[in-house]
Amino acid sequence: MLISKLKLTLMVALLCSGVHSSFGQGAAKEQETKLIAVLTSAAEYNAKADACRELARIGTADAVPALAALLADAKLTHMARYGLEMVPGAAADDALRAALGQLKGLPLVGVIGSIGVRHDEKAVAALVALLKDPDAGVAQAAARALGSIGTPEAVTGLSSLLPGVAAANQLAVCEGLFRAAEELAAKGGNDQAIAIYDTLRKVSAPPHQVLAGAWRGAILTRQKGGVPLLLEAFRSADAGLVAVAGRIAIEMKDPEVSKVLADELTKAPPARQLMLCNVLGKRGDAVVLPSLLGLAKAGTGDKAARVAAIRAAIEIGDAAAAAPLLELFNDPDAEIAQAAATGLVSLQGAAVDAAILKMLDSADPALQVKVLDIVRQRRIVAALPRIQQLMADKNEALAAAAVKSYAELAGGAELTGLLEKLVTASEAAAIGALEKALGSICGAAEQPKGCVPQMVAALAKAGPEAKQALLRTLRVAGGAEALAALRAAVDDSNKDVHTSALRVMSDWKTADAAPVLLALAKTSATPVDKILSLRGYLGMAARKDLPPADRLAICREALPLIQRSDEKLLLLGALGSLANAEALNLIVPYLDDAGVKAETVALVMALAGNRAKDQNVAIARTALQKVVTVAADTPAVVARAQELLKQMENEK
Amino acid sequence: MNQTTTIEMTESNHNLSGAPLSRRQVLKRALAASSAFAIPNIIPAAALGRGGAVAPSERIVMGAIGVGGRGSYDLGCMLGEADVQFVAVCDVRKGNREAAKNAVNGKYGNQDCAAYIDMRQLLAERTDVDAVLIATGDRWHAPASTLAMRAGKDVYCEKPASLTMAQGQLVVETARRYGRVYQTGAQRLSEPNHVFAIEMARTGRLGKIHTAYADIRWRDGMLRNWLPAEPEPPKDELDWDAWLGPCPWRPYNSAYVNSAGWYHYYDLATDVAMWGAHTVAQALAGIDMTDVTHIELEYEGPDVSMITRLSNGVKLVLFRSGGSISDKCDLWHGACGERFDGPDGWVAAADGYSGPDVSSPALLREYKNVLADYTGRTQRPLNHVRDFLDCIRSRRPTVANPDVMLRSMNICLAADICEQLKRSLKFDLHKAEFVGDAEANRLRSRAMRAPWQV
User: Fold this and answer.
1) How far apart are CA A463 and CA A465, in angstroms?
2) Which of A51, A322, A488, B415 is deepest in the core (most CB within 10 A)?
3) Best residue in A44, A78, A238 to probe B by mutation, most B CBs within 10 Å?
4) What CATH number matches the domain at B189-220+270-367+403-444, 3.30.360.10, 3.30.1300.10, 1.10.230.10, 3.40.50.300?
5) Closest partner CB to A211 (pick from B36, B176, B422)
6) pTM for the full model?
7) Do A142 and A130 meet the contact criterion of CB atoms below 8 Å apart?
8) Which CATH superfamily is domain B38-180 in?
């Protein structure tokens, strides 16, 4: 018996193994026959469940008897429906319908649900009878299923029950009626659907969502004819209904609705105006812009409504809003002006750009400054020539704002002009803004190195401050030519330029600076320069993008140059990040260096502790033995070192 | 253009949230009066100058259903919102239930949070609850959302939003039917880097998009076997029947419930849709879908990318490779990426990286402008939870509303069915059915187990 069951299980596993490559009718029928055989056999529960799942995919009327026979099986009833729900044709309907009179409890609830999924109109009478079943689960399932079937007879059954329905079942009956109304409307029965929604609107003490749904259905199903009802809801004293109306109005696609609501805007009290603006913005019909912007410009109007109107106009996103927004941009009320500014940043289109550019010619410098900010945020590159003029304005605030905007908007085409300005600039703020612009241009260029020749040429003409700005920007551009220029600047007679060059060099992005830094660390005239160069060089040793061998070589080259504890720590850090035997070899001598002993002990312990088994055993043992000696005054460290040594005893 | 170019953002990308004031103010006065409608009494005093405090009567009252790993994370995010008050949590696992209850009570400094095992009880009893967070296992997402919206609650539900197309359709219908606000947890639709990528594509800055990519580097939901039966825990510890919910019964084994072991099983989860739900919605958001009627899915094998073609000519690549979701790839840095290719360049965004990837760094100069345009045009914050809460107040559709959810989930689930059947398929997006393939159409739905049918 057991062997037989095992064989069956294996067979089902093969049948249901997920190998579902396309196969012809014959093969499918053969597979179906085998699956049916599993259902009628003594196979295990899971084997039968698997067979049901597969029959959902390929089963035909032939599989219905075997599946239907399991509907009363408490364990398999669900999987039987799993199969039956998907089997096409009347046989499955007949089987499920027949089961209605034979089942109780959960199997019955399940079958009712499947009948609903299959929209079996022949089951309506039986389901109507079940609406009054004492088992609430059965009654509720019947109500939902009847709704899904959605015939007039189903509606009659549900509607007749509604007035005195038990509280526990009220929502299910309403759900059924909603479903039925949708079914009917989808088949052209709008009048019947409207009747259902109107019935639901009048339900006594309805759940709020039922009322919302009923109003929605009543308005949307009436289509154009629903507008008066929509307005009734909007004008309601019940604020919740107003919110429901708002949501419905967003769903209504007819542009005429926008016009009606825009008319309403002028008549409504501020509270309704807020809701109407919310709706009109989301609907997005530009035809209502005059109404919205009229409300926005009404200086005596409610401020919250004015702001809402501006935001709605922005949301509609039509360029026609630009001119009114530019007016509002200069409104004495800061909140209104700010709302308008947000819109001017957001509205897209060349016409909007042009309108904003015109404002740059205002005679009011304070307004010009604000407009420059909009120009900058919108990235109106076409404004650059005008901004360039304003950079020379005698009004300092305006000139500074112009420089800031220019710096953000300038691109490769402006490189030459920017460099000309930089070499002649004297104010620190202007130099800073121009440096930022240069950095931005180089950073955004397809080939940053392409910017270098012009920058190198500018170096020759620049004063010390501008030269330092250029040197910092060379780092952004990178490349051999930039590095050579930087190296030349290290020899600059101006001390600040010299130091800046050295600092930029020590923070260079690529390893080609390493030999230059090493040479400087060896040959520089002052200790400070040597230290700066050495630190930059050691920084290269810590770069994880370089091969470990190169990083180790840098450490070895640096060793004889290192004298101070600070640089020793940099070296230890670089060696620690390598975490190999050679690095550990270079680290161990520092255990004898009083200045960095504590840090070296910690590093050795970390490296030895994190070491993979059988890795670097000899050098790790030597290092730990030395730790035991030099850290004798720290018993915890010694104990841990000894513990690690013990663990290593059996390693190779 | 083959090499991924990235510039790190030097400034925060997260300070561009649109001010939600407008949405709140919209209803400030409108909802001041008493109402037959239990829409939350909606206006945040915080926004009006009470230093962050929001009177209890003005808060959105919430419940949380499914408060395990992801659920507890979401709950933490929502608890941080000043205009939210959680009053109930629900989980079939006692450990999750108690931890969430303690977290809520700890946040508010009281003992007021109620704990439920059965979500139906919470939904029926707590008429004071305006909205629910749903972060159950995937098998429960759509049924729980449907039940909650039918009970009059607005819903924030984690992804994937449904196990089948039929369940997804139920969610859409229920949200419409009862005028509910629903947000699926496709939070990348509200994150700056992803929004930037989407908007760069959508607004034509890359030219007409010819190819979009969505990350689906995840294989799961494939197993059909049962694990060996173990003794069921007491119902109070874990209600196994409710845990399974509408899915086919199987004997209890702790490996299903621990460490999300259920991910691997066909009856309890999805395959392509599991990860596609994280990315496909973003990919679609950047494409003009106006006239798209159908999608053709090309089956090339189990572990390679699936090429799909939209009827408007755009190629949507469901990207898969041999490695894991977090392995390096040529399309973007990080995981859960989407990418848009047009004649004028490409943009990609993914998790775990500082900025979007772009074909040319010059494109990144548009970053702030693009986001400002987005927040102005949509009046949405760049914060997914906040968008949901604002929409509860304004009654507007959320950014990841039911229609957005259904469109992306149906494509994911169609790809799932394509992989199950191991053949190419054509799917009609309007009718939500496969063209000329009855067998595929039968996989769009799975019968639900009583009493958990909805």
Assistant:
1) 6
2) A51
3) A78
4) 3.30.360.10
5) B36
6) 0.83
7) yes
8) NAD(P)-binding Rossmann-like Domain (3.40.50.720)
